[in-house]
Amino acid sequence: MRPSVLILVLGVVTSSFGLSGCRTDQGHYTILSTRNVELSRVDLKYTPVVRDVSKTDSRLWFLFIPLGHAPTLDTAVDRCLGSGDGDFLTNAQVKSFWWTILVFSYESYSVEADVVQTPREATREIQPSPSAPPSPSPPPRTTH
Predict the structure, then answer these.
(1) Which DSSP state fits 85?
(2) Where are the domains of the chain?
(3) Given CB 3.0 to 4.6 Å as the disulfide criterion, which of 117, 118, 132, 142 pairs with 87?
(4) Which residues pair with 93 in a beta bridge?
(5) Which residues pair with 113 in a beta bridge?
(6) The pLDDT of residue 118
(7) SS3 content of the chain, % helix, strand, coil (to 5)
(8) b/e string for 35-60 if b means 16 or more Cβ within 10 A?
(9) What tens digit of pLDDT does each residue of 85-97 get?
(10) Residue 129, CB-side half-sphere exposure with 13 Å CA sphere
(11) Is the C-alpha dihedral spanning 114, 118, 123, 128 positive or negative?
(12) Beta strand 88-101 with 65-67: parallel, antiparallel or unpaired?
């Protein structure tokens, strides 16, 4: 066999068995957050926005041994919020990605979005509405 044909066959076999990957668009979201935000108190015209923030959560594998924690969408969103010092994301694009090269593998979630910084009073804990006060009991009856 000629050397060029052998290299071509070896390259096809190696890429078929040793190299693979996939990138998936998980979705586009108008608003995305892992925090409680009362949106009725937010006016998007007057709140600061940090544009085009991108963060990932990932893990590397060696053979069949994971090196680190499993990546989660929650962690990627939290990192994005922390990077922009905000409370929720707008125009968020979420993607997942993985690849394998022989004995190494990689997997990740990535989030790219605009981070909205809300006023602090919009993120305070939302308290349940107070229940109605108990009705007064009727006065005791007296018998004569």
Answers:
(1) T
(2) 24-122
(3) 118
(4) 28, 112
(5) 53
(6) 83
(7) 25, 40, 35
(8) eebeeeebeeeeeeeeeebebbbbee
(9) 999 999 999 999 9
(10) 2
(11) negative
(12) unpaired
Beta bridge partners of 66: 61
3 state DSSP class of 134: coil
pTM > 0.85: no
Secondary structure E strands in 5-125: 19-32, 49-62, 65-67, 88-101, 104-116
Give the pair of three-digit tokens for residue 42. Answer: 């937010």
| Tokens standing for residue 49 | 């926005």
Query: Three-class SS of residue 139?
Result: coil
User: Could you tell me the two tokens for 92?
Assistant: 């968020």
Q: Cβ neighbours of residue 106 under 8 Å, at least 6 residues apart?
A: 58, 59, 60, 61, 97, 98, 99, 100
Tokens of 24: 């998936």
